Amino acid sequence: MRHLLSTKDLTRDNAIAILDVAEDMAGVADREVKKLPALRGKTVVNLFFEDSTRTRVSFEVAAKRLSADVINFSAKGSSVSKGESLKDTAQTLAAMGADVVVIRHAASGAPKVLADSGWIDAGIVNAGDGTHEHPTQALLDAFTIRRRLYGPDSRGRGLDGTTVTIVGDILHSRVARSNIWLLTTLGASLRLVAPATLLPVNTSGWPVTVGYDLDAAVDAGPDVVMMLRIQAERMNASFFPSAREYSRQWGLDDERVARLPAGSIVMHPGPMNRGLEISAGAADSAQSTVLEQVANGVSIRMAVLFHLLSGSDA
Fold this sequence. Notes:
Blueprint: H1 12-26, E1 43-48, H2 54-65, E2 69-74, H3 86-95, E3 100-105, H4 110-117, E4 123-129, H5 135-150, E5 163-167, H6 174-185, E6 189-193, E7 208-211, H7 214-219, E8 224-227, H8 243-250, H9 254-259, E9 265-267, H10 280-283, H11 290-310
Parallel strand pairs: 1-2, 1-3, 3-4, 5-6, 5-8, 6-7, 8-9
Helix pairs in contact: 1-5, 1-11, 2-11, 5-6, 5-11
């Protein structure tokens, strides 16, 4: 694996191999010295053109636990904000000897442009590009689902027979798009639930069923309910009448959580708008995996960096 740009590029075997390596990486967090020498001498650059604390820090911790050198490159306050092009930035990073570039960009497709350009001879990891994809978030979600539902000793298995309901702002969500392709590849069945205004115009090519009634979806007893953040910063029009109306119709409140099967789990990629798409009770319930997702993100990103820099056979 040379780059990780989209979950569409991952075969079932690729995805399971990454999840299995992440199981090994998860054990590093329990050691007294949380370090592996696997990537000593390698340089990982975090190139973030959009604000992100959670994802950037997760990649930084992952790289440092593998003993790589880390350079954090933020567009704000840098030459990028003065008009430097992506090409010039990439060539600067190449001159620094970057082995992997982790890029987040507001433009969909920017990581692919970087990977295909020949401007830099480094592995490219898509850490979120516009409303397109966020593959490592989908991998950590799949890892969390597999661990919660099937235990940490579930190496080698996919998510066959697992039912997943994704709720909320599908239209603007790169997390939803990456999860749709990855979870389907792993054998899960997906249902999307949202107001019609927050669904893409055409989902006919997606391997999902679509509904508009959250209560009906909850009563169907899914194994996983994944709530999505309302991305107000990407909205330039009114997509629903009011926050109160949205919360009443499509928010996961305490009463809806109580109706879920005891073994179901509640997920959220964060950051959460408590009281809008998810209640405080739902976010903090025993069924919630929100904090596990953050911890698992480090393990998954360690596995991805290891695959890119060491090769999957190492």
